[in-house]
Amino acid sequence: MNFKNELAAWSKLVDDALDRYLPKADEYPTTIHEAMRYSIFAGGKRLRPVLVLASTKAVGGSVEKALPVACALELIHTYSLIHDDLPAMDNDDFRRGRPTNHKVYGEAMAILAGDALLTLAFELIASSAAAFSLDRVNLVTLEIAQASGSRGLIGGQVVDMLSENQAITGDIMEYIHRHKTGALFRAAVRAGAILGGADAEQLTSLTNYSEQMGLAFQIKDDLLDIEGDEAKLGKPVGSDVKNQKSTYPSLYGLEEARRMADKAATDACAELKIFGPEAEFLRSLMHFIINRDH
Amino acid sequence: MNFKNELAAWSKLVDDALDRYLPKADEYPTTIHEAMRYSIFAGGKRLRPVLVLASTKAVGGSVEKALPVACALELIHTYSLIHDDLPAMDNDDFRRGRPTNHKVYGEAMAILAGDALLTLAFELIASSAAAFSLDRVNLVTLEIAQASGSRGLIGGQVVDMLSENQAITGDIMEYIHRHKTGALFRAAVRAGAILGGADAEQLTSLTNYSEQMGLAFQIKDDLLDIEGDEAKLGKPVGSDVKNQKSTYPSLYGLEEARRMADKAATDACAELKIFGPEAEFLRSLMHFIINRDH
């Protein structure tokens, strides 16, 4: 199966699993369950769950069994988007071309829907206990909780918020990205590896891959805001410049930012040299991320 | 040791543990850690963690080892209060006589502090793995996640919000209480019991105790809003009547509500008949709750 087909197949697997794991929209109290489903099924790329599956496959684990943990990562990612979009935070009315959660369900319900998705993520991880040895599930819980907390994702969001409309250093920009987006990519890859029974060398290689991949992803994001096509992106370009946001291109220049993204992508793939064809998907994914147009 | 002294000793144990488990206020990014600590150390009764400790003691478990899970319950309780107080929800400026989290740190930080406390709760539970067999930790994680999610605490908050300024039936009022406050009491007692190695009979008795105790707690709360002393409560009385809120006294009358509270308290203690002096604290706690003046 080629990369695009496998990516589509895994996204479908994740979507079907999410549909099974989330309370149905008609379960009482219905509004919260509708609100949770609205944002989960809003057309995300499912990058974090796919990373879990690809990483577990690279070490010979079962993709099927890793689905609850893969979906948990998507629940956490989605909760963080719902809360980020709130009027008190980024105050965004649209995401991926659709009204944001609070525009449809109101602020209170959006806050609670986010809370409920975060809580359900940990229930899902714990429910993996039937499929894996408990010590792996325990390690994965710790990994994901740490990556999502005030020393991970939330810490990145805090520093991003406090840095708004300010000139920041490259170090602070890197802190924001490493925490706000990087931490969850890293946790996704490590969770898949741990569930699949990675040895120490494999875990180190995959961790390094995830960090370089996260960096390349972020620089590409910054580049798309300058060079991207609004129609393909589904959002206006140039918002970083307009908001005077520090980005890789603004701090290092366009040429150097492109070079940094390419280098991170190359380094990411170099980390996979201990793997054979079982990691081909992770290699292709890195190319896909660096060449994407949205 | 008499009940009041033991309650004070356990509260102190919980406070000290929370201080160890929470990131220090000067850890970067400091604002979020200050905000988390502000609400955690705002003078709560520590009822939920104490229930974990009392329940584990009743079945012969170690109070010391149960501390991370006990504290996790307090983190979840506190996060739910921070989010409930937000302008989009109950819009409360004060809690326990102090400005609410968002009044001090702003709405965005209050939302993130709540998110971070919820996330840290699951990290803490997972960190118990060194002290207990992993299957107990896994059961406790499931128990607490379910009690906190859209089928528990959050579901109760949703129905409470949607029922505002409406006449509701006794059934709906009961749904709200059983979920919004009852679910976490129940999870606290069951978590303590499971960690302590309760057998099936003990777990059933303690579960029934927690449900009757939660009911008595809620009716007493309603009664205090009518008969309480503002100075001791630290908040104005009569707010339920003013907000036309359905309560046990408003639906069943003052006399009947008092009788229902007493019956629930008596039933709760009757559930403990299979236990000896090791459950004395839980019995005293029930008396304490029903006779409290704040």
Please tag this protein with its features:
metal-binding (chains A, B), metal ion binding (chains A, B), Farnesyl Diphosphate Synthase, isoprene biosynthesis (chains A, B), Farnesyl diphosphate synthase (chains A, B), 15 helices, Polyprenyl_synt (chains A, B), 294 residues, mainly alpha, homodimer
* Low-pLDDT residue spans of chain A: none
Number of strands of chain A: 2
Tally of discrete structural domains of chain A: 1
Q: What proportion of the residues of chain A form beta strands (DSSP E)?
A: under 5%
Q: Based on the structure, what is the oligomeric state of the protein chains?
A: homodimer
Q: Span from first to last CA of chain A? A: 23 Å
CATH topology of chain A: Farnesyl Diphosphate Synthase
| Count of helix runs of chain A | 15
Question: Biggest sheet of chain A, strands in spatial order?
Answer: 1-2
**Structural class of the secondary structure composition of chain A?**
mainly alpha
* Radius of gyration of chain A, whole Å: 18 Å
Helix/strand order of chain A, N-terminal first: HHHHEEHHHHHHHHHHH
Mean pLDDT of chain A: 95
CATH superfamily of chain A: Farnesyl Diphosphate Synthase
Largest sheet of chain A: 2 strands, antiparallel
